[in-house]
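[Discussion] Sanity-checking designs against the backbone

I'm trying to build intuition for which residues belong where. Below is a structure token string of 176 positions. I'd appreciate it if someone posts a full sequence so I can compare it with mine line by line.
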């Protein structure tokens, strides 16, 4: 009996290893960005799935936390997908910004750069652009306001309902 394997466009094992990713790479399938190692996915409708995958990598480069899954970065940048669906100017800002990143990165694009230092150098070049400021400014809230992440950073949430910080050891932070 002969087994026939379906040939699909994608990256080869060699290309995956050459890119030097930490964990599994994000896979783009149709209108979705999928993380096979963490079992999550995100459908896109307004922005290209490649754009969303690059936004996730960009978010991780702007606010790097190695112990945090890409899923939380995907949640943080999903707002750009939503806004792009109703605001053509925002869609253009994001799509053109990602295209510029890919152009600056060279043949394999921004996600294809294996070294974080190379990606950060590109980000330093564009940090004053409206695109970068829009993404960075949104991430401050959309990433760090995810309650599932608060324990990772040692934040217990609001304290008013528990008597305030003064009575609960406001200066007991251990990770600083």
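Best answer:
Here's mine. Compare freely.
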């Amino acid at each position: 009996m002969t087994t026939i394997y379906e040939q699909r466009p994608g990256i080869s094992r060699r290309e995956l290893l050459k890119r030097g990713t930490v964990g599994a790479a994000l896979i783009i399938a149709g209108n979705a960005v999928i993380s096979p190692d963490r079992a999550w996915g995100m459908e896109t409708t307004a922005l290209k799935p490649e754009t969303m995958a690059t936004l996730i990598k960009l978010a991780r480069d702007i606010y790097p936390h190695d112990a945090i899954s890409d899923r939380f970065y995907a949640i943080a940048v999903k707002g750009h997908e939503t806004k792009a669906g109703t605001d053509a100017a925002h869609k253009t800002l994001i799509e053109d910004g990602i295209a510029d990143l890919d152009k600056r990165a060279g043949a394999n694009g921004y996600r294809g750069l294996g070294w974080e230092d190379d990606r950060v150098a590109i980000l330093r070049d564009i940090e004053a652009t409206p695109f970068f400021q829009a993404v960075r400014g949104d991430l401050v809230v959309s990433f760090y306001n995810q309650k599932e992440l608060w324990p990772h950073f040692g934040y217990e949430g609001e304290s008013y309902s528990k008597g305030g910080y003064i009575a609960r050891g406001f200066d007991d932070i251990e990770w600083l």
